[in-house]
Amino acid sequence: AAGGEAAADAPGLPVIAPEPDAVASPIQIAHNVPPAGSILVVDDEPVNLQVIERQLAAEGFRVRTAVHGPGALEELERGGPFDLVLLDVMMPRVSGYEVCRQVRARYSAHELPVIMLTARNRPGDILTGFEAGANDYVTKPVDRAELIARVQGLVSLRKSAAMANELSLIKRDLSIAHEIQHGILFKDLPKVPGAAIAVRYRPMRELGGDFYDVRADGERGIAVLVADVSGHGVAAAFLSAMLKVVYSFSRAHANTPGALLGLVNGSMADYTGRQFITASHARLDLDAMTIRYSSAGHWPLAIWRPSGDRVITDDFTSIPIGWQMDQRYETREAALKPGDRVIFYTDGIIETRSHGEVREMFGEERFHRLIREGAGLDADSFADRVLESVRAYSTDADGDWLQDDITIVVIDVGGREA
């Protein structure tokens, strides 16, 4: 209290009590709430300017002022961006109508709304304002409630239009990214004597995180990479594109899948951020009838063998790409027999859950049973059967069924044994 009295009595330091309208909200002060919008007020009458400025500031708006048309145009250049202009009609030198026309030459009605302030309520004056490009008008003396309502409405409209424009740009970029990803994934499958190949890919969203590459490696060799980037959307698609490039430079090591995955990991470990990639790579040699394969934290490939109607898998511990820089991956080898069906897949099949309260996973056991039941189908028909089965298992009341990206690669080796 003593300090306050001394300050009040000190010469040259008069205490002026602020008007209630000029006081910022305690919530805004305490939580540093950003302004409700930025407004340029143009009026050559200082009293009007001060009243309007205080009324808008009390509602949380950031307010800049100008007292004539040239000053308003200069303020638009150096003081913006603004969400709205409050513009007096009758001003010296340049009228509000002319200022509004110059504003419209630079900004559309959605980009920068204009409210005309007029002391006259004649239809001709209002029409002239609209013809100059004004969005709305308020008559003087200004009614506070009316002013705030009109300002808030147009500021909200302007922000909505800006968001819609930004969303349109995002959709355009997503469409381009989708086309790029489509070009990366969807290429003609190789024709390798003694093998039938089928691939099915279904992204959960427009941009998926799964990646596959199937190509001939010599006259009777097939190299396969199936990978799954954690997450979805642009980040996952970007990592998929990076994986494509890195894999292209590592294919010389296709015959040693473990070494190939190690090279891919070493190239990408610094760039995956908070995400990671599981991958399965294999090379089938149809002359030697062998398959060499490796895994980086991925679900194991499956081989259906006609003799004994068996599903053969080889699960071994490994970590995903991107977890640590110096990671070694093991290469294993197995014999192939005529009639074998080799299946690569991502977890969108195994880990999809049923609809309803139980939410049980599709699981390996159900998948292996599906493999045995589809043994009599060709590779394409079997791949379709898998998708149909997952769809039937997981479709909810809204018709949605994809809970993750799904990729399946099916390779039938030679003729089927009796």
Quick one: biggest sheet?
5 strands, parallel
Secondary structure tally: strands: 15
Helix content percent band: 25-40%
Count of helix runs: 12
Overall shape: elongated
CA-based gyration radius: 34 Å
Our estimate of the beta-strand percent is 15-25%
Structural class: alpha/beta
**What strand line-up does the widest sheet have?**
2-1-3-4-5
Order of helices and strands: HHEHEHEHEHEHEEEHHEEEEEEHHHE
Describe the overall structure.
This protein has a five-stranded parallel beta sheet, with helices on both faces. It is 39% helix and 22% strand. The longest helix is centred in the middle third of the chain and has 42 residues, at 144-185. Residues 1-33 have low confidence and may be disordered. The chain is of the alpha/beta class. It has twelve helices and 15 strands.
Output the keywords.
418 residues; 5-stranded antiparallel beta sheet; disordered N terminus; 5-stranded parallel beta sheet; alpha/beta
Which helices and strands appear, and what pairs or packs with what?
Layout: H1 2-9, H2 26-31, E1 37-42, H3 46-58, E2 61-66, H4 69-78, E3 84-88, H5 96-106, E4 114-118, H6 123-132, E5 136-139, H7 144-185, E6 195-202, E7 210-216, E8 221-229, H8 233-250, H9 257-268, E9 277-285, E10 290-296, E11 302-305, E12 310-313, E13 332-335, E14 341-345, H10 347-350, H11 363-373, H12 379-394, E15 406-413
Parallel strand pairs: 1-2, 1-3, 3-4, 4-5
Antiparallel strand pairs: 6-15, 7-8, 8-9, 9-10, 10-13, 11-12, 11-14, 14-15
Helix pairs in contact: 4-5, 7-8, 8-9
